[in-house]
Amino acid sequence: MTVQTIGEGLAADEGALYARVQQFYAEQVALLDDLRAEEFAATFTEDGVFAPSPSVPAAHGRAAIAAALLAAHERRFRSEEVRRRHWYNMLRVSVRPDGALHTRYYTLVAVTRPWNPVPDIGPSSVVEDLLVLRDGALLTRERRVVPDHLSF
Amino acid sequence: MTVQTIGEGLAADEGALYARVQQFYAEQVALLDDLRAEEFAATFTEDGVFAPSPSVPAAHGRAAIAAALLAAHERRFRSEEVRRRHWYNMLRVSVRPDGALHTRYYTLVAVTRPWNPVPDIGPSSVVEDLLVLRDGALLTRERRVVPDHLSF
Amino acid sequence: MTVQTIGEGLAADEGALYARVQQFYAEQVALLDDLRAEEFAATFTEDGVFAPSPSVPAAHGRAAIAAALLAAHERRFRSEEVRRRHWYNMLRVSVRPDGALHTRYYTLVAVTRPWNPVPDIGPSSVVEDLLVLRDGALLTRERRVVPDHLSF
Lengths: 152, 152, 152
Fold this sequence. Notes:
Chains A, B, C: This is Nuclear transport factor 2 family protein. Three copies of one chain form a homotrimer. Chain A has one domain (3-150): Nuclear Transport Factor 2, Chain: A (Roll).
């Protein structure tokens, strides 16, 4: 596997870089929202870190990330049928000196239940990621989520 | 009218393509939210298809699309005065082999009534469009909306 | 200080222009949401205008903008601890003949209180800005906000 920095070409094209990150998130979030836990975990680097809240330990590595995702979902929804949709907003992307991308964005989650057109919305969070380019594709090396209600 | 594929030039510029689609949606949604039904319908191809829900028949052609929009609004709000705002998120854009664009995105609708600063929000839906370029402008050839609460 | 029009180079790159505006808003909104009033005001031109609602007088100049922001926050939240997150959507960007950028977008505000994962969401507004490029950076020359509930 070739590890590339973002710096070569893409970083120079501000429009392409920003669009690439948005497309990456749109594809990654579809896996998250469909609870395809292993495919979601595969969008992280093999040694990726996922810290969904300051109040729980971070998951290290793809197997731990997939397991944490499933456990959190079962804890919250049990066997209840829901459609979850993560929304991202106010995305900032910056290229670090080492060639990794640092991103920061707001999130909200809309949760819909059968036959009820009114979703539950929340929590509101701030997320920071480190993204790297491997074999031409973006991967998440680290994600740290701070839910606003736990940030005081 | 010249029918063009997206492939020529624009598809090669990932940043421009993504921005162009976002601008197209921002302009199209203003017509939708202002209930300018005929102008909204004119953002579809003449043989455009609009399927606002799996539970109702799709509208075929601009006249049917405009009529369906007005009928749905009257059914839901009657003569009540509201401001509707459609929000889109997590947009994916891909160029198909035939040069059309396939898009997929989440939507929510915020509905505000006079003097009440708290909008009603919902439903949450997933939308898939086919877009084509005609005379340099994007048009929607097909839109299929699946509201989450009807997706189980 | 060099005053530049957007026209030189950036306007010709539709993807870069749209991304640049989105990044500008993401940075500006972080200052707004953190209530860093003077830094927020410094993202306006020195003679900038901020009209947060048709029902109140517009603030003219950076000192007035910073003061108006703090006063509005105190009026609404007093000493209550909250996290505010402004969300923007359906952004339209157009280059005017004089080289300034005109933008139009929807906004919502999510307000979270300690330990409560359910944010208050609202009001829904439509914002129009004029942006100019100074010394290579975007600044807001004018912002006019129309909350939907006051727009009837």
